[in-house]
């Protein structure tokens, strides 16, 4: 019965999910002094990893959300908090998200777990960590959950568990939610950078020749998946991509202790993204659904120093996984 009941106490106006979301997205403080490691991949590309070392035997891996990076405010806040407690932290910058375009036409998508597995194997083989906790936010959370279910029998033994925050575990219904008027501002911002990346890829690769008018007119994720994700990654359609990339079907396969935190007021998420029944009947899949928090927000006030989401990380890591720095 791993349904957790920890609640976030918020003040006006942070009971409004959009205030909570936007405030967190644009308030990054105390940028970490990351140590960057570039890892060459099997397909003549690279993935940039940003470390905050502490000489700990325990490493927390963080994966950002759509069009984020290690410099995203939620990544910075979580990385700093965990690092200050003595943990080593590693932020995975998904392909094309590290500040430099990657080498090949393919970048990343919500279900591309082969990159996650490659990086975890790299860390296992090149570092001396005894414990690794895999965690992610939004799209990165979907990657975390899908990986833990999809690769369950291949996961390196040093990986002890997972944490996922604000996760659209059902991409079909979540993209429909994001296409609603209430989320227009977020959709425009996501598409602004995605369109720029697609145009850049079209300039660099002759085999990729999308209609520039369609790119300019794209106003939804479906438009973008039809122009780029589906054809480039070999999906039959945007619907095929959403179905195959969603983490929800893999949750039942997860044997590592794993925590999912989805706020009930998250405007990005559909009702299908709250797997209460699965958590109620599981001994290792934990679900926490606070009333407030927005999408990757979880801010309590304008002078927020509560670190609510970061404390949930630590509570789970120490109390459920029994892992300390």
UniProtKB/TrEMBL annotation:
InterPro entries: AB_hydrolase_1 (IPR000073), AB_hydrolase_4_sf (IPR050960), AB_hydrolase_fold (IPR029058), ABHD4 (IPR012020)
Record: active site: 138 (charge relay system), 266 (charge relay system), 295 (charge relay system)
UniProt protein name: AB hydrolase-1 domain-containing protein
Matching Gene3D superfamilies: alpha/beta hydrolase
A Pfam family annotated for this UniProt entry: Abhydrolase_1
Family statement: Belongs to the AB hydrolase superfamily. AB hydrolase 4 family.
Residues covered by the AB hydrolase-1 domain: 59-298
Organism for this UniProt entry: Tenacibaculum jejuense
A GO molecular function held by the record: short-chain carboxylesterase activity
